[in-house]
Amino acid sequence: MTRAALVRQKIEAAEARLEGLSLPQGSGWAMDARRAAEARVRATGLPQRRDEYWRFTDPALLLADEVLPSSTDLPGESPVFGAVDRLRLVFVDGVFDPAQSDAPEMAGLEIETLSDAASTDIHWAKGVFGVLEAAGQRPVERSLAAFNTALAEEGVVIRATGKADRPVALIYLQKSPGSEAMIHHVIRVEDGAELTLLETGPAAARFSNVMEVEVADRGTFHHVRAQGRAHERVAHTHAFARLGTESTYKSFTLTANGRLTRNEHVVHLTGDDAVAHIAGACVGDGGDFHHDDTVFVTHDAVNCESRQVFKKVLRNGATGVFQGKILVKEGAQKTDGYQISQSLLLDEDSQFLAKPELEIYADDVACSHGSTSGAIDDEALFYLRSRGVPHTDATDLLTLAFLAEALDEIEDERLSDDLRDRLENWLKRRK
Q1: Where are the domains of the chain?
Q2: Cβ atoms of residues 221 and 215 within 8 Å
Q3: Average of pLDDT values for 115-124?
Q4: Per-residue pLDDT at 230 exceeds 90
């Protein structure tokens, strides 16, 4: 297929998806952002398998007219982070449910729904909504994110003006087996403020989630996400972040099960001495499991640090993908960029596809990347077996040890301990 033919195919796919859809109504700034996002979708089209950044992942399930149903009847398990004191904001099939949510009030935070914020004539979100997503379209097109910006009506708008004394938890519940949800969050962490945001739950049979996060000078943002257990779930998420001077952005995602999941992170360090850590742990089982982490970190200031740590455990024909890039712009001296992606293959049928990249235009930097794939260490397994540990228990111990580096990226031990427990339960259920 020629380049022109591919572009035509992408634009035709976009026109087909947009046909009959209308933009949500709002005030002038919101409508301007949505119209601009729609124009981006129509100009670039929707992704196809022949696109460079989609060659490992077929986007067909994300673009299909029909949503494949996903089971909502899963074995009982306590809510993720249920023991943590948190402010709960609940979405059911992608729609905010105030009856199941806590009052959106906390010292140091301003919280609104996206629809309420978008209806006001003047709002701080104008400088973030659609702005970070648009900037993230270069040098790689991310038209699924633009599609979300144009059409998402649901989401929250959060402004942190101080240090929040407890996390804000976005809880996504699925009620209908064939539901499709589209959610867009806008977050700004002001100078010196701090916020921890949690995301949990399956959300829908097909889920589109975009988060735009601006962290001002000396601000701190922590993000911990646990993606749902439904085997048939299909999801694509985008997180766009812009970091100011001496700011901190840390994000961790745990994914268990799901037919197709693609998580994209686009982070731009614009202020000196900024820190960005993006990490993930994935456990997948079965030939219909496909998980894709795609990360793009741009260093555009002096003495900044970034870490990408991704671990995947795959078995019974599961597929894992990692595409990670560190771009160091001219003048971004004293950059410290670290990237590691590893997979543990528990059988010969599973596969891990990786594309690590470094692009550096400064000379005083310390950047590294590595990607490995392998099986359980036979010597370590023999050591545990020789001391009376049953084979399955020994395999589980080594699997959890393999995932530990990614989980260690979570600073709050309460959250990391909860996710470790979830992983242990997953391993026991899937024996």
Answers
A1: 3-377
A2: yes
A3: 97
A4: no
